[in-house]
């Protein structure tokens, strides 16, 4: 016997059908057949698969059920079931699940509502044809989308902090950043979703051509080559991930820094006078984003970069404001 009451079987069937379709889409779009075209970052997967999930869930939900459940709550249950399954069986990491969940929820509602409108007062056969069209559409359009070029955007993220210390003190704390402890950074959601914390930044020598090595937890390292050195005013450098030190399990393929979808290209510190004994420190970075949904993906990459930069600036601010007086930094800094 089925372990739940008969009237609830339809809900389980509806959620199971939607889950099956979503998992099928996940495996098809992650296959070698479509991976080169963007795979799980294709619009057909990110938008059309959850729309089909919503339509399928609505189709198998009893007509006597309230519209709220059929078009909103039912799709939510199915989407959450799919995301939980992806995490449980390590199909996706927490970062990717967090990023796609708003898209999946929104488009599943659209799919369920569109199905409800289209099939209103229609026969069972017509409803079957409609839900079949929803289910097939992502897979039919995927080869066409694969022919399109992926757009590339350049994005800039900037953070600012006001420091109660002169530029000479601040300068010494940005050219090199000694070891940072976890408690120095404080809690942040970026830690919870799997991004490694910054650890330290070393410098081979002062001046243009100097190489900073910015290390993060779990073996993540970036090689930063200084190409602009203006003591007490500006420090700028190119950024290249040291792929030889980064374990393949640190980042999901879709959020790997230096991968085909995302890269951090440059970083710059600017120091501006902000009154006697005060300095305004600005940190900004430039990133490359190459997805078919750059405006949406950019919201997430901007937030992650901003959060990382904000925490680094907070550490620098705290260290500068508890450092020795500026007279301790009277030695001249070489200029290149």
UniProtKB/TrEMBL annotation:
Spans traversing the lipid bilayer: 40-60, 72-91, 97-115, 127-144
Domain of life the protein comes from: Bacteria
Keywords carried by this UniProt record: Membrane, Transmembrane, Transmembrane helix
SUPFAM superfamilies: Bet v1-like
Name of this chain's protein: Polyketide cyclase/dehydrase
Organism: Hymenobacter swuensis DY53
């Amino acid at each position: 016997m089925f372990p739940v009451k008969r009237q609830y079987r339809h809900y389980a069937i509806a959620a199971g059908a939607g889950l099956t379709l979503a998992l099928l889409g996940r495996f098809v779009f992650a296959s070698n057949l479509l991976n080169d075209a963007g795979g799980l970052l294709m619009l057909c997967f990110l938008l059309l698969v959850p729309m089909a999930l919503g339509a399928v869930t609505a189709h198998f939900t009893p007509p006597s059920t309230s519209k709220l459940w059929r078009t909103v709550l039912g799709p939510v249950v199915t989407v959450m079931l799919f995301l939980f399954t992806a995490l449980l069986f390590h199909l996706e990491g927490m970062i990717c699940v967090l990023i796609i969940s708003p898209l999946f929820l929104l488009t599943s509602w659209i799919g369920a509502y569109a199905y409800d409108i289209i099939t209103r007062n229609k026969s069972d056969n017509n409803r079957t044809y409609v839900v079949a069209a929803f289910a097939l559409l992502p897979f039919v359009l995927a080869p066409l989308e694969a022919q399109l070029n992926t757009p590339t955007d350049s994005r800039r993220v900037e953070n600012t902090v006001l420091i109660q210390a002169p530029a000479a003190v601040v300068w010494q704390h940005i050219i090199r950043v000694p070891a940072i402890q976890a408690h120095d950074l404080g809690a942040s959601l970026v830690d919870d979703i799997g991004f490694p914390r910054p650890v330290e930044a070393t410098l081979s020598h002062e001046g243009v051509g100097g190489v900073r090595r910015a290390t993060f937890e779990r073996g993540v390292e970036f090689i930063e080559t200084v190409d602009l050195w203006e003591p007490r005013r500006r420090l700028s450098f190119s950024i290249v991930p040291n792929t030889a030190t980064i374990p393949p399990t640190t980042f999901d393929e879709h959020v790997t820094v230096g991968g085909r979808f995302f890269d951090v290209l440059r970083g710059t510190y600017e120091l501006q006078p902000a009154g006697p004994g005060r300095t305004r420190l600005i940190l900004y970075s430039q990133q490359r984003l190459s997805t078919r949904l750059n405006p949406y993906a950019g919201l997430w990459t901007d937030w992650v970069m901003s959060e990382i930069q904000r925490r680094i600036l907070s550490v620098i601010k705290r260290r500068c404001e508890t450092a020795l007086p500026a007279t301790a930094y009277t030695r001249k800094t070489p200029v290149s």
